[in-house]
Amino acid sequence: MFLGDLGATVIKVERPGGGDESRGWGPPFSNGVSTYYQSINRSKRAVVCDLSTDAGRAAALELCLRADVVVENFRAGTLERMGLGVDELMRRNPRLVHCTITGFGDGAGKDMPGYDFLLQAVGGLMSVTGEPDGDPLRVGVAIVDVVTGLHALAGILAALRQRELTGRGAHVKVDLLSSLLSALVNQVSGYLNAGVVPQRMGNRHPSLVPYELVPAKDRPIALAIGNDAQFAAFCEEAGVAALARDARFTTNAARVQHRDELLGRLDGPLRSATAAEWVRRLTARGVPCGVVNRVDEAVELATRLGLEPIVEMTDASDRTWRQVRNPISLSGAGPAYASPPLPFDELPTLEALLSELGPNAHIK
Questions:
Q1: Catalytic residue of the set 50, 106, 145, 315
Q2: Range of the domain at 250
Q3: Do 24 and 86 lie in a common domain?
């Protein structure tokens, strides 16, 4: 989708009989399409192709040989059995950038199914998400899928740049498990370099204090203090300036060591004002903080800040489709939104699209 937003001609191949499985992931639905499917399928020309038939495989091969980039996430060996494997495609199209996305790589984990929730469980993310005495929790969105997609995007763009220099394509491989381990950043680094296996801490941060939800008079606020100067400004504004001079709390490392004692000392002062009042006062002092917004409130905040988070597209049937805009901004010609995601029964076949494009069309 992001490649399409950035100007690529993206042709998405869906199977007959219903298409991409995420079309059925709902409710909610809008314009007859799952809102989940809508969220990840703009800027693509979706087509239907039956890869179980000779004609379908021939059309898919023609598509691949005309393309700059092929992205696929079949289980290892599936495309090879169809005559569409990466080696065959790159032999016939040496400039091709081929991106393979798997759950657990193409080695010992090649037959393991890659679903985001499963990866959050086995990849360690759930072990550090949730309250210490509660069950492990999944993150509220398919964050492993998102991170892996962004890694794939970076790999594809790097391969295209490399092709400009060498004239040859490349095989880009990303997998969900490796992407998740990369995204665990400080948590996995603590294990690798200090032997510390991280545990669930609720909203607390293992290495920063106070960096968590704290109580106010009416509702909690997220207090994200990242350095000692911010802590001193916070203490002064909260009327507890002496805490910033206390040896137990002067440095972040000391605050981590005396976390519970510090938070106990802050509880009373913080309950003296509403969350909105604390956010106003602390933000004015350069102390990072905020309330816990719902999704609608987060969209309203972005709108209020002038970030223009929503894009609207109208299709040929005058249906309006609303989505979150691509967050990338470029000077000059920025992202554009070529087309909304359409209902499955409105998709053409791949063969019909190839005929429409003509015999010499290159898919950039």
A1: 145
A2: 221-291
A3: yes
